[in-house]
Protein backbone atom coordinates (compact mmCIF):
# COMPACT_ATOMS: atom_id res chain seq x y z
CA UNK A 1 0.00 0.00 0.00
CA UNK A 2 2.59 2.58 1.04
CA UNK A 3 4.96 1.64 -1.79
CA UNK A 4 2.06 2.01 -4.21
CA UNK A 5 1.26 5.47 -2.90
CA UNK A 6 4.82 6.71 -3.32
CA UNK A 7 5.42 5.22 -6.75
CA UNK A 8 2.07 6.44 -8.06
CA UNK A 9 2.60 9.84 -6.50
CA UNK A 10 5.95 10.29 -8.20
CA UNK A 11 4.46 9.27 -11.54
CA UNK A 12 1.48 11.55 -11.13
CA UNK A 13 3.50 14.53 -9.98
CA UNK A 14 5.91 14.19 -12.85
CA UNK A 15 3.45 13.57 -15.64
CA UNK A 16 -0.23 14.03 -14.89
CA UNK A 17 -0.90 17.21 -12.91
CA UNK A 18 -2.68 17.85 -9.66
CA UNK A 19 -6.19 16.62 -10.34
CA UNK A 20 -5.04 13.16 -11.33
CA UNK A 21 -2.39 13.23 -8.58
CA UNK A 22 -5.03 13.61 -5.90
CA UNK A 23 -7.25 10.91 -7.42
CA UNK A 24 -4.32 8.52 -7.67
CA UNK A 25 -3.27 9.17 -4.09
CA UNK A 26 -6.81 8.81 -2.76
CA UNK A 27 -7.20 5.47 -4.49
CA UNK A 28 -3.86 4.22 -3.20
CA UNK A 29 -4.63 5.41 0.33
CA UNK A 30 -7.46 2.90 0.67
CA UNK A 31 -4.84 0.15 0.53
CA UNK A 32 -2.60 1.47 3.31
CA UNK A 33 -2.51 0.15 6.89
CA UNK A 34 -4.23 2.04 9.66
CA UNK A 35 -2.60 3.58 12.75
CA UNK A 36 -2.84 1.52 15.95
CA UNK A 37 -3.92 4.59 17.95
CA UNK A 38 -4.50 8.32 17.68
CA UNK A 39 -2.66 11.04 19.64
CA UNK A 40 -4.20 11.29 23.14
CA UNK A 41 -4.36 15.08 23.14
CA UNK A 42 -6.66 17.52 21.31
CA UNK A 43 -6.08 18.64 17.74
CA UNK A 44 -4.84 22.24 17.54
CA UNK A 45 -7.33 23.05 14.80
CA UNK A 46 -9.00 25.47 14.06
CA UNK A 47 -6.02 27.46 15.45
CA UNK A 48 -3.00 27.57 13.18
CA UNK A 49 -0.84 24.67 14.45
CA UNK A 50 2.47 26.33 15.18
CA UNK A 51 5.05 24.65 17.43
CA UNK A 52 8.10 25.82 19.41
CA UNK A 53 11.36 23.90 19.94
CA UNK A 54 13.91 25.56 22.17
CA UNK A 55 15.52 25.87 25.59
CA UNK A 56 16.84 28.27 28.19
CA UNK A 57 20.28 26.92 29.19
CA UNK A 58 20.18 28.77 32.53
CA UNK A 59 16.55 28.75 33.62
CA UNK A 60 12.96 27.67 33.04
CA UNK A 61 10.85 29.60 30.52
CA UNK A 62 7.61 29.01 32.39
CA UNK A 63 8.97 30.84 35.46
CA UNK A 64 9.32 34.10 33.53
CA UNK A 65 5.88 35.77 33.08
CA UNK A 66 6.88 37.65 29.92
CA UNK A 67 8.28 34.54 28.25
CA UNK A 68 5.29 32.46 29.30
CA UNK A 69 2.89 35.03 27.85
CA UNK A 70 4.88 35.20 24.60
CA UNK A 71 4.74 31.42 24.24
CA UNK A 72 1.10 30.91 25.18
CA UNK A 73 -0.07 30.95 21.57
CA UNK A 74 1.96 27.94 20.50
CA UNK A 75 -0.14 24.82 20.03
CA UNK A 76 2.79 22.53 20.80
CA UNK A 77 5.94 23.07 22.85
CA UNK A 78 8.96 20.81 22.40
CA UNK A 79 11.56 21.20 25.12
CA UNK A 80 15.14 20.79 23.96
CA UNK A 81 18.00 18.96 25.67
CA UNK A 82 19.78 22.26 26.38
CA UNK A 83 17.24 23.33 29.03
CA UNK A 84 19.12 24.39 32.20
CA UNK A 85 22.27 22.50 31.20
CA UNK A 86 24.61 25.44 31.80
CA UNK A 87 22.77 26.42 34.96
CA UNK A 88 23.00 22.89 36.36
CA UNK A 89 26.57 22.15 35.21
CA UNK A 90 25.28 19.35 33.01
CA UNK A 91 23.60 17.37 35.78
CA UNK A 92 20.14 16.02 36.65
CA UNK A 93 18.92 16.15 33.06
CA UNK A 94 15.97 13.81 33.57
CA UNK A 95 14.33 15.82 36.35
CA UNK A 96 15.11 19.10 34.61
CA UNK A 97 13.38 17.96 31.44
CA UNK A 98 10.35 16.70 33.35
CA UNK A 99 10.18 19.88 35.44
CA UNK A 100 10.28 22.06 32.32
CA UNK A 101 7.42 20.13 30.71
CA UNK A 102 5.26 19.96 33.82
CA UNK A 103 5.91 23.62 34.53
CA UNK A 104 4.54 24.60 31.14
CA UNK A 105 1.51 22.32 31.42
CA UNK A 106 0.66 23.66 34.88
CA UNK A 107 1.25 27.31 33.94
CA UNK A 108 -0.63 27.22 30.64
CA UNK A 109 -3.56 25.29 32.06
CA UNK A 110 -6.18 23.66 29.81
CA UNK A 111 -5.47 25.79 26.75
CA UNK A 112 -4.84 22.84 24.46
CA UNK A 113 -1.07 23.23 24.14
CA UNK A 114 0.68 19.87 23.86
CA UNK A 115 4.05 19.71 25.66
CA UNK A 116 6.78 17.19 24.82
CA UNK A 117 10.01 16.29 26.56
CA UNK A 118 13.18 15.46 24.67
CA UNK A 119 15.20 12.26 24.50
CA UNK A 120 18.21 11.56 22.31
CA UNK A 121 17.32 8.08 21.09
CA UNK A 122 20.46 6.00 20.66
CA UNK A 123 22.63 8.77 22.15
CA UNK A 124 23.18 8.28 25.89
CA UNK A 125 24.15 11.63 27.50
CA UNK A 126 26.07 11.60 30.75
CA UNK A 127 23.89 14.45 32.03
CA UNK A 128 21.16 11.86 32.60
CA UNK A 129 21.89 10.40 36.06
CA UNK A 130 20.59 7.01 34.89
CA UNK A 131 23.36 6.92 32.25
CA UNK A 132 26.05 8.27 34.55
CA UNK A 133 25.26 5.57 37.11
CA UNK A 134 26.05 2.83 34.58
CA UNK A 135 29.51 4.28 33.93
CA UNK A 136 30.47 3.68 37.56
CA UNK A 137 30.53 -0.08 36.94
CA UNK A 138 31.59 -0.69 33.36
CA UNK A 139 32.69 -4.22 34.18
CA UNK A 140 29.01 -5.00 34.65
CA UNK A 141 27.35 -2.49 32.32
CA UNK A 142 30.00 -1.67 29.71
CA UNK A 143 28.26 -3.69 26.99
CA UNK A 144 25.24 -1.39 27.31
CA UNK A 145 27.31 1.06 25.20
CA UNK A 146 28.82 0.90 21.74
CA UNK A 147 32.61 0.84 21.67
CA UNK A 148 33.10 -0.85 25.04
CA UNK A 149 36.52 -2.45 25.32
CA UNK A 150 36.45 -5.18 27.95
CA UNK A 151 40.24 -5.36 28.02
CA UNK A 152 40.74 -1.73 29.04
CA UNK A 153 37.28 -1.50 30.67
CA UNK A 154 36.65 1.76 28.81
CA UNK A 155 34.06 3.05 26.34
CA UNK A 156 35.96 4.18 23.27
CA UNK A 157 33.08 5.68 21.32
CA UNK A 158 31.54 8.97 22.40
CA UNK A 159 30.02 12.19 21.07
CA UNK A 160 30.82 15.81 21.91
CA UNK A 161 27.85 17.21 19.99
CA UNK A 162 26.09 18.71 23.01
CA UNK A 163 29.35 20.24 24.27
CA UNK A 164 30.09 21.77 20.87
CA UNK A 165 26.59 23.15 20.41
CA UNK A 166 26.91 25.01 23.73
CA UNK A 167 30.51 26.06 23.05
CA UNK A 168 31.98 24.21 26.04
CA UNK A 169 34.84 21.76 26.38
CA UNK A 170 34.40 18.63 28.56
CA UNK A 171 37.59 19.20 30.52
CA UNK A 172 36.32 20.35 33.92
CA UNK A 173 34.09 18.78 36.59
CA UNK A 174 31.41 21.32 35.60
CA UNK A 175 31.45 20.40 31.90
CA UNK A 176 32.55 16.76 31.66
CA UNK A 177 29.01 15.41 31.61
CA UNK A 178 28.21 17.15 28.32
CA UNK A 179 29.76 14.04 26.73
CA UNK A 180 27.55 11.24 25.44
CA UNK A 181 27.95 7.56 24.79
CA UNK A 182 25.80 5.50 22.42
CA UNK A 183 23.39 2.79 23.52
CA UNK A 184 24.17 -0.71 22.28
CA UNK A 185 20.57 -1.35 21.26
CA UNK A 186 21.44 -4.82 20.01
CA UNK A 187 21.77 -5.69 23.71
CA UNK A 188 18.31 -6.51 25.10
CA UNK A 189 19.39 -5.60 28.62
CA UNK A 190 20.44 -2.16 27.39
CA UNK A 191 17.09 -1.77 25.61
CA UNK A 192 15.22 -2.73 28.76
CA UNK A 193 17.21 -0.19 30.78
CA UNK A 194 16.72 2.55 28.18
CA UNK A 195 12.94 2.01 28.03
CA UNK A 196 12.05 1.07 31.59
CA UNK A 197 14.53 3.26 33.46
CA UNK A 198 15.66 6.20 31.32
CA UNK A 199 12.41 6.90 29.49
CA UNK A 200 10.14 5.78 32.30
CA UNK A 201 11.84 8.14 34.78
CA UNK A 202 11.25 11.01 32.37
CA UNK A 203 7.50 10.38 31.97
CA UNK A 204 6.65 9.11 35.46
CA UNK A 205 7.75 9.42 39.06
CA UNK A 206 6.98 6.82 41.70
CA UNK A 207 4.65 5.12 39.22
CA UNK A 208 2.63 8.32 38.72
CA UNK A 209 2.24 9.94 35.32
CA UNK A 210 4.01 13.26 34.90
CA UNK A 211 1.94 16.14 33.52
CA UNK A 212 3.16 16.16 29.91
CA UNK A 213 1.97 14.83 26.56
CA UNK A 214 4.84 12.70 25.37
CA UNK A 215 8.46 12.55 24.22
CA UNK A 216 10.28 13.71 21.14
CA UNK A 217 12.79 10.95 20.34
CA UNK A 218 15.49 12.62 18.29
CA UNK A 219 17.76 10.58 16.01
CA UNK A 220 15.20 7.77 16.14
CA UNK A 221 16.17 6.80 12.61
CA UNK A 222 19.92 6.70 13.24
CA UNK A 223 19.88 3.24 14.83
CA UNK A 224 20.91 0.75 12.15
CA UNK A 225 20.18 -2.80 13.25
CA UNK A 226 22.11 -4.67 10.55
CA UNK A 227 23.81 -6.72 13.27
CA UNK A 228 20.50 -7.49 14.98
CA UNK A 229 17.67 -7.29 12.40
CA UNK A 230 14.32 -6.19 13.78
CA UNK A 231 15.75 -4.59 16.90
CA UNK A 232 15.11 -1.01 15.77
CA UNK A 233 11.39 -1.70 15.36
CA UNK A 234 11.38 -3.42 18.74
CA UNK A 235 12.75 -0.26 20.35
CA UNK A 236 10.11 1.87 18.61
CA UNK A 237 7.34 -0.47 19.73
CA UNK A 238 8.51 -0.61 23.35
CA UNK A 239 8.75 3.19 23.39
CA UNK A 240 5.21 3.51 22.05
CA UNK A 241 3.87 0.94 24.52
CA UNK A 242 5.53 2.67 27.48
CA UNK A 243 4.07 6.04 26.51
CA UNK A 244 0.63 4.55 25.87
CA UNK A 245 0.72 3.20 29.42
CA UNK A 246 0.88 6.81 30.63
CA UNK A 247 -1.53 8.22 28.02
CA UNK A 248 1.36 9.83 26.18
CA UNK A 249 2.62 9.88 22.61
CA UNK A 250 5.99 9.52 20.82
CA UNK A 251 7.33 11.90 18.19
CA UNK A 252 10.05 10.15 16.20
CA UNK A 253 12.68 11.85 14.04
CA UNK A 254 12.67 9.51 11.05
CA UNK A 255 13.07 9.60 7.28
CA UNK A 256 9.37 10.38 6.86
CA UNK A 257 8.42 8.09 3.98
CA UNK A 258 5.12 6.30 3.58
CA UNK A 259 6.99 2.98 3.33
CA UNK A 260 8.49 3.61 6.75
CA UNK A 261 5.09 4.66 8.14
CA UNK A 262 3.50 1.46 6.84
CA UNK A 263 6.19 -0.65 8.52
CA UNK A 264 5.64 1.14 11.84
CA UNK A 265 1.85 0.86 11.68
CA UNK A 266 2.04 -2.80 10.70
CA UNK A 267 4.25 -3.32 13.77
CA UNK A 268 1.54 -1.61 15.91
CA UNK A 269 3.62 1.52 16.50
CA UNK A 270 1.68 4.78 16.67
CA UNK A 271 3.72 7.95 16.34
CA UNK A 272 4.09 11.49 15.01
CA UNK A 273 6.72 12.06 12.34
CA UNK A 274 9.29 14.82 12.94
CA UNK A 275 11.05 16.18 9.83
CA UNK A 276 14.00 18.51 10.24
CA UNK A 277 14.94 21.17 7.67
CA UNK A 278 11.59 21.05 5.86
CA UNK A 279 11.13 23.66 3.16
CA UNK A 280 8.19 24.52 0.87
CA UNK A 281 9.75 23.00 -2.23
CA UNK A 282 7.82 21.06 -4.85
CA UNK A 283 8.89 17.74 -3.33
CA UNK A 284 8.54 19.04 0.25
CA UNK A 285 4.91 20.03 -0.23
CA UNK A 286 4.01 16.88 -2.13
CA UNK A 287 5.69 14.58 0.38
CA UNK A 288 4.02 16.38 3.31
CA UNK A 289 0.57 16.08 1.76
CA UNK A 290 1.16 12.46 0.84
CA UNK A 291 2.22 11.58 4.40
CA UNK A 292 -0.21 13.67 6.46
CA UNK A 293 -3.45 13.87 4.52
CA UNK A 294 -3.35 10.92 2.16
CA UNK A 295 -1.88 8.37 4.54
CA UNK A 296 -2.84 10.15 7.77
CA UNK A 297 0.50 10.25 9.62
CA UNK A 298 0.63 13.15 12.14
CA UNK A 299 3.70 15.21 11.33
CA UNK A 300 5.82 18.04 12.68
CA UNK A 301 7.99 19.90 10.19
CA UNK A 302 10.74 22.26 11.30
CA UNK A 303 11.67 25.07 8.95
CA UNK A 304 14.79 26.91 10.15
CA UNK A 305 14.75 30.65 9.50
CA UNK A 306 18.39 30.37 8.52
CA UNK A 307 20.73 27.43 8.99
CA UNK A 308 23.87 26.12 7.32
CA UNK A 309 22.03 22.94 6.32
CA UNK A 310 18.96 24.65 4.85
CA UNK A 311 18.15 27.56 2.56
CA UNK A 312 16.58 30.72 3.97
CA UNK A 313 12.79 30.43 4.04
CA UNK A 314 10.56 33.44 4.72
CA UNK A 315 7.66 33.01 7.12
CA UNK A 316 5.02 33.61 4.42
CA UNK A 317 6.59 30.91 2.25
CA UNK A 318 6.63 28.41 5.13
CA UNK A 319 3.03 29.04 6.23
CA UNK A 320 1.68 28.92 2.67
CA UNK A 321 3.54 25.66 1.96
CA UNK A 322 2.41 24.08 5.21
CA UNK A 323 -1.24 25.02 4.58
CA UNK A 324 -1.07 23.42 1.14
CA UNK A 325 0.64 20.26 2.37
CA UNK A 326 -1.00 19.74 5.76
CA UNK A 327 -3.74 22.35 6.18
CA UNK A 328 -6.33 19.66 6.81
CA UNK A 329 -4.25 17.36 9.01
CA UNK A 330 -5.63 17.32 12.58
CA UNK A 331 -2.43 16.66 14.55
CA UNK A 332 0.33 18.19 12.44
CA UNK A 333 2.43 21.26 13.26
CA UNK A 334 4.77 23.79 11.70
CA UNK A 335 7.90 24.85 13.59
CA UNK A 336 9.46 28.07 12.33
CA UNK A 337 12.59 29.06 14.18
CA UNK A 338 16.34 28.81 14.25
CA UNK A 339 17.80 27.48 17.46
CA UNK A 340 16.96 24.53 19.68
CA UNK A 341 19.76 25.56 22.08
CA UNK A 342 18.10 28.83 23.14
CA UNK A 343 14.66 30.41 23.30
CA UNK A 344 15.62 33.51 21.27
CA UNK A 345 15.24 32.28 17.71
CA UNK A 346 11.47 31.80 17.62
CA UNK A 347 9.74 34.99 16.40
CA UNK A 348 5.95 35.00 16.66
CA UNK A 349 4.25 35.89 13.38
CA UNK A 350 0.82 37.46 12.94
CA UNK A 351 0.25 34.70 10.38
CA UNK A 352 -0.05 32.33 13.33
CA UNK A 353 -3.01 34.31 14.70
CA UNK A 354 -5.19 33.74 11.63
CA UNK A 355 -7.84 31.02 11.52
CA UNK A 356 -7.64 29.82 7.93
CA UNK A 357 -10.54 27.39 8.21
CA UNK A 358 -10.95 24.00 6.62
CA UNK A 359 -9.55 23.16 3.20
CA UNK A 360 -12.22 23.26 0.51
CA UNK A 361 -10.53 20.35 -1.21
CA UNK A 362 -7.13 18.84 -1.89
CA UNK A 363 -4.31 20.99 -3.26
CA UNK A 364 -3.77 21.48 -6.95
CA UNK A 365 -0.42 21.27 -8.69
CA UNK A 366 -0.06 22.78 -12.14
CA UNK A 367 2.81 23.55 -14.50
CA UNK A 368 2.91 27.22 -15.53
CA UNK A 369 5.66 27.79 -18.10
CA UNK A 370 8.67 26.25 -16.34
CA UNK A 371 7.30 26.72 -12.81
CA UNK A 372 5.29 24.32 -10.66
CA UNK A 373 2.43 26.12 -8.88
CA UNK A 374 0.74 24.62 -5.83
CA UNK A 375 -2.56 26.07 -4.63
CA UNK A 376 -5.15 25.31 -1.96
CA UNK A 377 -8.33 27.12 -0.94
CA UNK A 378 -9.80 27.37 2.57
CA UNK A 379 -13.22 28.10 4.06
CA UNK A 380 -12.05 31.50 5.37
CA UNK A 381 -11.52 32.63 1.79
CA UNK A 382 -7.77 32.21 2.08
CA UNK A 383 -5.91 30.92 -0.96
CA UNK A 384 -2.41 29.59 -0.33
CA UNK A 385 -0.06 29.39 -3.31
CA UNK A 386 3.56 28.37 -3.72
CA UNK A 387 5.43 28.84 -6.99
CA UNK A 388 8.48 26.67 -7.54
CA UNK A 389 11.04 27.55 -10.21
CA UNK A 390 13.04 24.61 -11.54
CA UNK A 391 15.35 23.00 -8.93
CA UNK A 392 14.30 25.43 -6.19
CA UNK A 393 15.09 24.20 -2.65
CA UNK A 394 12.65 26.63 -1.02
CA UNK A 395 9.91 28.25 -3.07
CA UNK A 396 8.18 31.63 -2.60
CA UNK A 397 4.63 31.51 -1.29
CA UNK A 398 1.68 33.81 -0.84
CA UNK A 399 -1.70 33.91 0.90
CA UNK A 400 -4.48 35.89 -0.75
CA UNK A 401 -8.23 36.21 -0.39
CA UNK A 402 -8.13 37.43 3.22
CA UNK A 403 -6.47 40.40 4.96
CA UNK A 404 -2.84 39.63 5.78
CA UNK A 405 -1.19 41.86 8.41
CA UNK A 406 2.19 43.46 7.72
CA UNK A 407 5.01 40.96 8.21
Task: Give a description of the structure.
This protein has 407 residues and is of the alpha/beta class. The protein has helices at residues 2-15, 18-29, 65-71, 93-108, 129-134, 138-141, 161-165, 188-203, 231-245, 258-266, 282-295, 315-326, and strands spanning 50-54, 76-79, 114-119, 123-125, 148-149, 154-155, 180-182, 204-205, 208-209, 214-217, 249-253, 272-275, 299-303, 333-336, 364-368, 371-377, 383-388, 397-400. An eight-stranded parallel barrel has the order 1-2-3-10-11-12-13-14, surrounded by five helices. Strands 15-16-17-18 form a four-stranded antiparallel sheet. Helix 1 (2-15) runs antiparallel to helix 10 (258-266) and helix 4 (93-108) runs parallel beside helix 8. The protein is globular.
Instruction: Give me the side-by-side strand order of the main sheet.
Output: 1-2-3-10-11-12-13-14
Note the overall shape. Answer: globular
Number of helices: 12
Q: What about the largest sheet?
A: 8 strands, parallel, barrel
Helix content: 25-40%
Oligomeric state of this protein: single chain
- Determine Rg (CA atoms, Å): 22 Å
What structural class should be given to the helix and strand makeup? alpha/beta
Order of helices and strands: HHEHEHEEHHEEHEHEEEHEHEHEHEEEEE
Q: Which blocks of ≥5 consecutive residues have pLDDT under 50? A: 1-20
Strand content: 15-25%
What is the average of the pLDDT values? 91
CA(first)-CA(last) distance: 42 Å
Q: Let me know the number of strands.
A: 18
Amino acid sequence: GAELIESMARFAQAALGAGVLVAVLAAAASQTPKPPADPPFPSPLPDFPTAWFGANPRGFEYQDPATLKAMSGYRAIFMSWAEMMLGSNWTNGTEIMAAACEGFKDALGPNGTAVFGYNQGQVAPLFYPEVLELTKDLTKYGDYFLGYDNVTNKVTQNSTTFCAQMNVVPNTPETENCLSYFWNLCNDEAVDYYINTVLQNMVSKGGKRRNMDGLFIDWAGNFRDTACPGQAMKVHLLTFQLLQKYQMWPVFSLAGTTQEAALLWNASVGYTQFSEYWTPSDAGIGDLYNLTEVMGVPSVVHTPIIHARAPHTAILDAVAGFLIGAGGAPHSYLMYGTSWTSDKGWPWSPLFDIKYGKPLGPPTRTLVATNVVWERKFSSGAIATVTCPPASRSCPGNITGIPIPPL
